[in-house]
Amino acid sequence: MEDPIGTFNTVKTHVMRAVTGGLTAVKTSSDSAATLLQNARTLEGQAKEMDRLAKTADHSSEAARTKVAAMQNRAKGKVANARGERTGRLAQKFGRGGDIIAADASKYVKGGSKLADGAGSVLRGVPYLGTAATIGSELTDYATGTDTAGEAAMDAGASLSGAAVGGAAGAALGSAIFPGVGTVVGGALGSMAGDFLATEAESLLTVE
Question: What's the Cα-to-Cα distance from 184 to each of 21, 41, 112, rounded to whole Å?
Fold first, then answer.
């Protein structure tokens, strides 16, 4: 007969991994959309400035080049805006809740040390709720005697860092393949894969 606690922990791990992946998808949707829309606004601003410079140019050839550059920037801005709107659709489905889901705990890490910078980068890559869920899961393992305090802390660190790195890599790959939707899907799948690989590696390295 299988150990019920072992079965529970296995199911819990898979559920938490799926939950974190889903939360990461919403975070990626919100963060990527905000970046793309900001880029669109920047490009539009640059295009307006180029239009102004074209009107005051001394030579027609210089004015023509400036106008072309303005048109190119405006076109890039429209593409970035369209991608931003597509990318942000998932987060928008949650309304104001999307902002809550997309929030992370990096702001709580203070100090300029390498350790603080590293912790901030990890927490920035995982939604606040995902971080809380991971820590809560490891606290459960500690409370039930499945892990010692040190083991639970290492498991949490491996899970969060793996999810952060995997999520970022997956989002980048998804963006390269299909910007927008690919960014969100890649971020979610990358988060789950990174979590799995990191925790498996941590288990192999710490096995007695």
Answer: 10, 22, 31
Look at residue 1 in the predicted model and tell me its pLDDT.
47
- First-to-last CA distance in the chain? 25
- Name residues whose C-beta falls within 8 Å of residue 1's C-beta, 6 or more positions apart in sequence: none
Tokens of 169: 């890599």
Q: Please give the Cα distance from 158 to 17 (Å, whole number).
A: 12
The closest of 184, 191, 192 to 88, measured between CA atoms, is 184
What's the average pLDDT block by block, 10 residues per block, for the chain (208 residues)? 68 80 82 86 89 78 84 88 81 72 63 55 70 83 84 86 85 83 86 88 74
Token reading at 26: 């919403």
Q: Cα-atom radius of gyration of the chain, to the nearest Å? A: 22
Whether the CB-CB separation of 137 and 12 falls below 8 Å is answered with yes
Total residue length of the chain: 208
- From residue 125, alpha-carbon distances to 21, 122, 128, 169, 178 in Å are 12, 5, 9, 11, 21
Torsion of CA 18, 23, 27, 29, to 10 degrees: 70
